[in-house]
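Let us practice reading a record.
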Amino acid sequence: MAQAPRKVLIEEFTGSWCGYCPMAISYIDEVRTTYPSTVITIAHHVYSTSVDPMTNDFTLALNNAYHINTAPNVMVDRTDWYDLLAHDSSQLIPNYTGHNFIKDDVIKRLNMSSPLSIGIVSSYDSSSRSVNVTVTANFVAAASGDMRINCLLVEDKVTGNSNYDQNNYGGSGCSSPVASSEFYSYPCHIPTSLTGQVFYHKDVVRYNMDSISNIWGTAGVIPSSVSAGQHYSKNYTYTLPPDWNSANMKVVAFVGLYNSGTSLGDEVLNAQQVSLGQITAVQENPSAIDKITLDAAYPNPFNQITNIKVNIPAIQHVSVKVYDLLGHEVAVLTDENLSPGEHIYYWNGNDKEGSALGNGLYLIRLQTENQSLSKTVVLSRN
C-alpha cells in the first residue's frame, strides 16, 4: 500500500515572560538542525496580550483546550507533549536531557509513513497585503476518521519594542546560568528593540486561517472515509496587519485526525510549510515510473504562472530550484524528501522574497544525490 513520507510538527507553548523558554528554544533548534527537511516548528505564545503582544485568541484557546499550565511545553505531532520543567527537576542544568525525549519522539514519528501528502498554493499581494492560500490533502492510501485541514500563518524573526523583550533565566549573571546554553552570553532580560544584542522570536503563530471556534481545523472538507487517489482542498484568505513582516511569513498547513475522546484532542497525520508568496507542492500523485523526469515548463513563455512536472521512482531527497542566467538562485520550488510519483509545482515568476522578477530566460534545475536535470523557461510579463 502506498504511503507518503512524513513531516513532523513540533509545537512549543512559550512566552516572552518565560525565563526558561530560551532553553527550550535551544533544544528545539537542535532537533530542527538534525532534521531540517522533515521537521516543522511553530511557537504558540500564551498568557495575555498585555504581557506578551504575540499572544492571540487562537493560541490562548489552544492552550486552554490542552490544559497546559506551564511553559515551556512542547508537543510532537499532538501525540505526545513534554513539560520541559517537569523533565528537569533542577530546572536548568547543563546535562539536561529533555531534548532527547523530543528527538526520540521525532524519530518514532518519522518512521511512521502517512496516508496523505499536503500541497500548498500560497499567493501574496504586497499592495493590499492580502494572502490567498489553498491547502490540498492528497491521499495516497485509504484513511478514515474525522480528518481536518489546519492552516496557520507563522512569522519568523519577530522583534519590536520593549514589550517583546525575552526573559532568560539561563543567561550569564542570572540566578541559574547555564554555560552550555546558546543563550548564556545573553543577559537575563534580552532586548528586542532592534539595537544591541537582539533576540528574535522564532516561528511565531500569528493567525489561524479558520475561525477561533475551529481550533482543531476545518471540519467537513475531508469525508470520514477516503480512498487512495482522492484530493480535498480548502481555500483561505486574510489581510496581513501592517506590523507583520511579510518577508518573514510562512504558511504551515497540516491535517489532524480529531478524536475528542483522547487526552490530546487530535493527531497530526502530516504537515507542510511554504514561504508566503511562493507556490509549491501543489499536487502529488503516485504513478508507475522507472526513472526521474523533469518535463518542460508549461506554458512557456509565461506571464503569470508556469507548471513544472517532476516524476520520482522512489523516495529520495529532491530539490527543484530556479536560477537566473548569472547562476544566482532566485526561487526554491521544493527541497525535501519526495514520495514516488508525479509532483507538480507552480512558479509565478517571483523571487524567494515574493518580489516580481524581470522578463528573461531562467533555468529550472532538478537535483538529487546522483542526478541533475535542467529545463529553460521564459518569463514574459505583459
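A brief commentary: Residues 87-98, 280-288 have pLDDT under 50 and may be disordered.
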